[in-house]
Write a structure and sequence with these properties.
8 strands; Rossmann fold; Dienelactn_hydro (chains A, B); alpha/beta; about 25% strand; eight-stranded mixed β-sheet; globular; about 35% helix; homodimer
Chain lengths: ~240, ~240
């Protein structure tokens, strides 16, 4: 059958939600599973392609929907950040929707629920750090050009999920001060964390749609994209054992 | 013949110097070469073992001697840092001895001089960052728990060698402020640089002889050791092409 996409509708606070699972119909044993948390715009073609790359590694993938069925924006929307802003203003709700998405991943018949992880981009990078903070039922998380501000609620320590934070050092949304604050927070929380900082790279370094961006500190960076993906594959191999 | 060690005596300011080359006598074509710069104590068994691991990757290795033939210390020496302190106080001399060591690497018959790199530990990590700063003739450098203070001399920009800086975040010899200062320096110098920060790890995280250290911020860390070695192997594969 090969790798294929399937729409997955699942429940949660403010739902229903609609994600996209990518699995190989030929798999006959459960696989490690990876949740993919999209950027500000929500679930879209770019994330489905990422999910196919994850499936190509031999893992089941689910693109999460944190906004709700049909709630998506584009760069040309009147307010591209409208759904994200709602969750940024309510981090406990973000947490609970992440938990619902992890539950949907665990419910996929192709997934070994004891071996799952989450990756996320931009806002999704922030989300997966929150998932680790909040004790989400995953072995590890990888943030690509995420945002680091703490969630404002107490969370259980030590953090159980391992973290890999892939960061463009020129990212104006996550300054060096924010990096060192995150490092101190995660160390204080007893996490197993790693930071990969990429010199000369900015926000959105994995996002080919931002190639040629003229906004200072924003844009695609081929080196950081390739290196962070390689780091992620090594990280997932480690956490899945 | 298999992998074997050979003593290499070479010239330079304050020399002669005596390093140890590790190559496979069965190699019949030149290989990429890696200079290994030891920690405070200078060239020793631990570095030769590292060189053997490098040779196991298919690269020719040379353990550098920056102090001079016979000038070595141990942790039990009256002043273990005596030779290092001399070079820390004279960074142009450190640079020139690094250049002499790179020349010795390039002169090995097993080495493709167009494809070389340098790695270093602790003081050697600082040294390889200086080597990149100073325009040393290598494609890349990897620092393991290095020290980041700038060398105090002007150096040519942009920096040509790629840098991978593997850093234990709890290292008191390289504080978060020193990390962000190095990042700013390298960015300003136009370098292709990466920082891998390891949460909970301290100074000497690759050094098994520091296992069980009770000195805060110092000690071996198996996770950071394994992860940084894997990062180095990927980095060397990238720079050697």
């Amino acid at each position: 059958m090969g790798i294929e996409r399937r729409s997955i509708v699942y429940d949660g606070p403010g739902g229903p939600f609609e994600g996209v699972a990518v699995v190989d119909g030929d798999w006959d044993t459960p696989r490690p599973g990876v949740l993919i948390v999209p950027n500000v715009l929500g679930e879209k073609e770019q994330d489905r392609v990422t999910a196919e790359r994850i499936a190509g590694l031999g893992y089941a993938a689910l693109v999460a929907d944190l906004y709700g069925q049909g709630k998506r924006t584009t760069r040309d929307s009147p307010d591209p950040a409208m759904y994200m802003n709602h969750l940024n203003a309510d981090r406990p709700l973000l947490r609970d929707r992440l938990f619902a998405s992890v539950a949907a991943l665990h419910a996929l018949p192709q997934v070994d629920a004891a071996r799952t992880a989450a990756i996320g981009y931009c806002f999704g990078g922030k989300a997966v750090i929150d998932l680790a903070r909040a004790g989400g039922d995953v072995l590890g998380v990888v943030a690509f050009h995420g945002i680091f501000d703490p969630p404002g609620y107490d969370y259980p320590c030590p953090i159980g999920a391992k973290l890999l934070v892939c960061h463009g050092w020129d990212d104006p949304l996550a300054t060096p001060d924010a990096v060192t604050a995150l490092a101190a927070e995660l160390t204080g929380a007893g996490a197993d964390w790693q930071l990969h900082g990429y010199g000369g790279a900015g926000h959105g370094f994995t996002d080919a749609s931002m190639t040629g961006s003229t906004r200072p500190g924003f844009g695609y960076d081929a080196n950081a994209d390739r290196r962070s993906w390689a780091a992620m594959t090594g990280f997932l191999a480690e956490v899945f054992g």
